[in-house]
Each structure stands twice: as C-alpha cells, then as structure tokens.
Amino acid sequence: MCAADLRLFLLPLPFVVSLMMPWGILARAEEPPPRPQCLLRVACFNAENLAAPGERTTLTRFRFEPARRRHLEHIAAVIETLAADVVVMPEVVSRAGVDAVVDLLHAKGLGEYRGYHVDGRDKFSGFDVAILSRIEPDAVNDKPIQIFVPSGNKRSTKPAADGDATTEGGDEWLRRAYSHVDSRGTTQHEQAVLQRHAVAYFTVCGRKIGLLGLHLKSNPSDGASNAQRTAETAIAREIVRREIVARGYSPIVLGDINDYDPDVPMADSGRRTRTTVLHDLKDYDDASAGDELVNSAQFIPRVADRYTSHWDFNENGAADSDDVFTMIDHVLVHRDLVPAITRVFICHAIDLDISDHFPVVVDFDLGKVPSE
Fold first, then answer.
1. Could you tell me the pLDDT band of residue 370, with boundaries at 50, 70 and 90?
2. Is the pTM of this model over 0.85?
3. Distance CA 169, CA 151 (A)
4. Which one of 114, 174, 190, 200 is least enclosed by Cβ atoms within 10 Å?
C-alpha cells in the first residue's frame, strides 16, 4: 500500500465517502426536496343570461321552459368539462339559476361543487355575478361571498341582500362621478356604482387568494359606456386595495371586463381600446412600481386563440366573416402568483346556443410559490 492510500484509509469513513461521491450527486443531495404540487384551476365564463325555468327576468333570452332547461344542461356540461376548482360566472339572473346548475352537477356525480350568489344592483339587466366552487371560501364578515355597494343606491330596486358588505354610511368611495358627451354634443354628468361584481376569499395550500369577479359596462366602442366603465374600474381598484390586499390576500381580478388590453395582442388586430381600463386594473396601487396584476392571456401561445367573445353581427346563429371575435374577458393574476401559472387557454368548444362568450381557464401549481 502506498503512502497516499494509507492516508486515505486513515480518514473518517463519511469523509472518504464524500470524496468518492460524484460532485453532481453530492450537489443534488444538498438541494432541498421539491415542494409538493398544489394544483388549482380558476375560470371565468359569462353564462349569457342564465335563468331558471319559470322565473321572470328583466332581459329575456329564452321564454319557454324547454329552452331554459336546455341552457342549464349546456352550462352544467361546460362546467363539468372544464373541471375548474373555482368558476366566476357573470350574467346569472338569480340564485335559482345557480342552484339549478349545481343540482345538475351533483346529479352528474360532481357533489363537491357549491354555488355562491349575491344580488347585483343592475336594474336594467338584472344580471349578477355568481361563483361555483369545489373549494369552500373563507368566511369574511361571516359571508362566503360579498358585494360592495353603497347604501341607498338609486339605480336599484333590489333590497339589501345577505352578501351586502356595505349597508351603512361611510361608503362614498363606492360611487364615482363621471362625464361624457352625448350624441347632441351636450356634456352629461353621471354617477357610477359597481353594480355587477362579487368577492370571495380562498386559502389554498397556505396561499390566501381573493377573487374579484367583474362584469363591467359593455360596448367598448361607445363613449358613454367607456366613461362609465372607467368609473366602475376606479371602484374596482378600491375594492382590491381595501377589501382584498388589506386583508392579506393576493388578488385575482377576472370576468367580463368588456374592454381590450393594449399590452396583449388578440386575434382581432384591428380593434383598439379607447380607455385605460385594463391598465388601471393591472396597476391598482399607484404607490407601487409597475403593474401589480398580469394578464394571464399573454401565456396563451397562439395569438389566433386569443378571443373570448363572439358578436353574431347578422344574428344568424353561425360564425360568419362579418362577425366580431374579440378578447374582452380576462383573468388578471397578481404578479406573485405568476410563477405558479402552468397553462392558460380559452375553451372554444361551445357555440352560440350556449353563450356568446368563451371560458378563460388558468391552471396554477401553487407549490411553485412559497406558502404565506
């Protein structure tokens, strides 16, 4: 035995093993174990005037029970297919329609779904924003779902509901004055209230996430509508700051926002936003550098797939060259959650008999971000 071999023989055994171990194996042994997966699928889907059979609606899509039952079946089939953990659904008329969809899901064997509904304040359409979830929401203010509206809203005839989070004084921040010039050139002064929205809070794998489901004023080509939507957006930003971030939740803002994001190219390259709505929502905190929210649509690889709405221009129930396909539904994710995004897609496997909107779906693996 040579002197070098003798010195090696006299060294402590663990040290000898470490010297003989390949460096790659040693490095891997020192790495912390990977965090377990924590998968979450979030979706938004405008159900286009979802109503239960027999109930009176302000805006009527289907007048007779067979058509309404068929619509409910189709919506339940979409939810079943998407298999999302949480779905934000604008354009539901009442709790009855939400319960009808949940009953169908339970009959299909998907008994973990629960429906959460809160009355909106839109007197004209009667539309609300509901949430279907396989995850139980956190109870905040002893409520699983909330709407933030000022007391004495003159635009609504609906009474205060269980989900109302603001029914007393001190709620002027929930109103916004705005102006627009009408077709006669006269300046009109109006007041906006965020009439169609819902807020729910979830804790998933130690991560606190607050969802703000929105349905903002429609028609991004109309000046008065754009002014109202901009005012609604100012209120939405306040809700994010005061009611979601201030409670320690990471916000996700999603739904039918009815506007285009200039930062994310969409399939229709000829249309441009006339507002700062998407910019304002993404940069909800003026005191923080950069945008706090990221539009998940930027992770859809093909720009040709980036459309969420089908305006049937000639109302023939089919897709024609004159129809309009734009991206007006969005899922805006807090930047801290972006590393957890694994896939984003828009489900185009439905037709106009179901809805004139397509679901937006975002998959997360929350195991990729530190728990809070």
1. confident
2. yes
3. 7
4. 190
